Amino acid sequence: MTFKVLEPFLPLILAMASLSVIFFLASLIFIPWLIIRLPSTYFSSQTRRPMRTTSAHPRLSFLLTVIKNLIGGVFILAGLVMLVLPGQGLLTILIGITLTNFPGKYKLEQGLARRRSILRAMNWIRGKAHRTPLVHPPEKN
């Protein structure tokens, strides 16, 4: 049996495999790095403090916000892919959501962090770095 049928798709298959490996390795490095830097009370408040809306450099602030949201979007997409490929899918999605700005974001973050497996994984990573555990988010009202 020959694979001539797949030959036109070989560059696409190699690109997808390469991206999968890159995102897997990046998740092993960046996800723990980001989780360690979260304050231990990040998920514990009932409400999130609003972001600063004024800046001495509004164009730079806007550009940095756009870049942060794009990076968050890449993490979300990579996390979705990692749900079926090797990697830490749910943690990657949570980090991506943390980096993006949208209405209802904090409630979604808390909902994900309420999942025992996700909070346990994040606290395991924090424990390896000798950081205090994340405080469990309050239950929904």
Please explain how this structure is put together.
The termini are far apart. The chain is mainly alpha-helical and 141 residues long. It has helices at 10-37, 58-82, 89-99, 105-113, 116-128. Helix 2 (58-82) packs antiparallel against helix 3 (89-99). Helices cover 61% and strands 0% of the residues. It is globular and about 60 Å long.
Task: Note the topology.
Blueprint: H1 10-37, H2 58-82, H3 89-99, H4 105-113, H5 116-128
The major beta sheet can be summarized as: none
Give helix % range.
55-70%
Strand content: under 5%
Q: H/E order of the elements?
A: HHHHH
Query: How far is it from the N-terminal to the C-terminal residue, by CA?
Result: 60 Å
Shape: globular
Low-confidence region ranges? none
Short précis:
61% of the residues lie in helices and 0% in strands. It is mainly α and 141 residues long.
Features:
141 residues, mainly alpha, 5 helices
